[in-house]
Amino acid sequence: MNPARSDAYDVLVVGAGFAGAIMAERAASQLGRRVLVVDRRPYVGGNAHDRLDEAGIRVHDHGPHLFHTNAQHVVEYLSRFTDWRPYEHRVLAAVDGKLVPIPINLDTVNRLYGLDLDAQGMEAWLAQRAEPVAETRTSEDVVVGRVGRELYEKFFRGYTRKLWARDPSELAASVAGRIPTRTNRDDRYFTDSHQALPADGYTPMFERMLDHPLIDVALSTHFDDVRGALRWGHLVWTGPIDDFYDRRYGPLPYRSLRFEWETVPTPGGALLQPVAQVNVPDESIPYTRTVEYRHISGQDAEVSTITREYPSDEGDPFYPVPAPENRELYHRYAALAEADPDVTFVGRLARYQYLNMDQVTAQALVTFERVRARLAQAHAGAAGPFHPTARS
Ligand SMILES: Cc1cc2nc3c(=O)[nH]c(=O)nc-3n(C[C@H](O)[C@H](O)[C@H](O)COP(=O)(O)OP(=O)(O)OC[C@H]3O[C@@H](n4cnc5c(N)ncnc54)[C@H](O)[C@@H]3O)c2cc1C
């Protein structure tokens, strides 16, 4: 990757995560444009950044990132920059002194209640417990309507209240709606056709995406550091949309996480927990989950690195809070963005929506086509070659 070498670029990309790296790669390789990518963090990859820790274990700095998708075009695009190592994520929940599968499946119910149900038996068991809900509006409605109040309280209520600092009855149905209930024994967290991790990590994949003679990358560089000093033709913004507009309507709320890291000797290569992720729904324990990275990296080692995640209002913006008033506030910012043809807003923070990595990839690839059209127009309108113009 090249450091910044000029004070004028065709495209300035703010953010070196999935959204920014893809837009930069496309603009350089498809349109032959000169691109500068800036990121305020000292590394590329955004929230998907990973690294080898002091003990040599590959860890994800911003929580475990498991790549899974049904979108073949997304796999094909990313496969230009990485090989894949198959990985299926499994999660257990610590409930009533036992570790049982989540999403709830046949084994969850049988182990928790000492039963021996088959699929049909479980369907009947759930049907007896599910509470009729007149209109499914909230996360509580979804879960109580599906599995009844007891399982809702054991698995969802405390976990959700810790993660969001809101009761599930105050959160949109989509939050809990993402987690299925199964009457079979499938204990995979995801069921997508492609479940794999970049073979040598996310960060090397991003480095290859950005390794192009027309792309410069300035790390530890905030947009404010360059806005007065550079000229550019088009701006791609992947940071929080309210930051771009100086929060003029007020801040969009996010939840964040604080990570507590521990590296523990594991003689003989033992693992600390049976699966990569253990959820802790108990509200009296302040963290939501523990993650053991060797399950994810597939490494053999005499040590193991584990994190505990403590939800917080402070820290990096991670999860847009899915409540109607926040959506309304976002739409006020989105209206400003629509009236600004020289800036493209793309990615999870710029669109204020929960998006997985494959969804951000798909969104960036579609959005790039709009930028292509916009840059072609700007080029056709100019007297000579495209001239970068400062926005501010
Ligand atoms: C805890 C957690 C776990 C997740 N797990 C998964 C998972 O298992 N599977 C999955 O598919 N997805 C997962 N995701 C989602 C995944 O992180 C996102 O889909 C993806 O990272 C979004 O990419 P992005 O480019 O939109 O945003 P980001 O990765 O957030 O990148 C935006 C970048 O912009 C930079 N930036 C912002 N403002 C400025 C500024 N003013 N100046 C300079 N730089 C700026 C930031 O530093 C950041 O690096 C998870 C997310 C979190 C928070």
How would you describe the overall organization of this protein?
By secondary structure, the chain is of the alpha/beta class. It folds into two domains: 197 residues, NAD(P)-binding Rossmann-like Domain (Rossmann fold); 87 residues, no CATH class. The chain is 34% helix and 21% strand. β7 and β8 form a beta hairpin. The protein is globular and about 70 Å long. Flavin-adenine dinucleotide binds next to α1 and α13.
Brief synopsis:
The protein has 392 residues and is an alpha/beta fold. It has helices at residues 18-31, 72-78, 106-113, 119-129, 139-147, 149-164, 173-177, 202-210, 223-226, 241-244, 293-297, 324-338, 357-381, and strands at residues 8-14, 35-38, 50-52, 58-60, 68-69, 84-86, 91-95, 98-101, 194-198, 215-218, 231-237, 254-265, 277-279, 289-292, 303-312, 319-320, 343-345.
Keywords:
five-stranded parallel beta sheet, binds flavin-adenine dinucleotide, Rossmann fold, 17 strands, alpha/beta, globular, 392 residues, single chain, seven-stranded mixed beta sheet
Number of extended strands:
17
- On the 0 to 100 scale, the average pLDDT is 94
Looking at CATH, which topology of the largest domain would you report? Rossmann fold
User: How many structural domains can be distinguished in the coordinates?
Assistant: 2
- Bound ligand species: flavin-adenine dinucleotide
CATH class of the largest domain: Alpha Beta
Number of DSSP helical runs:
13
Radius of gyration: 23 Å
Report the sheet-strand fraction.
15-25%
- Name the CATH superfamily assignment of the largest domain: NAD(P)-binding Rossmann-like Domain
How much helix is in the residues? 25-40%
Based on secondary structure, the structural category is alpha/beta
Order of helices and strands: EHEEEEHEEEHHHHHEHEHEHEEEHEEHEH
Biggest pleated-sheet summary: 7 strands, mixed
Spatial strand order of the main sheet:
8-7-13-14-15-12-16
Low-confidence stretches: 382-392
CATH architecture of the largest domain: 3-Layer(aba) Sandwich
How many angstroms separate the termini? 27 Å
**Form type:** globular
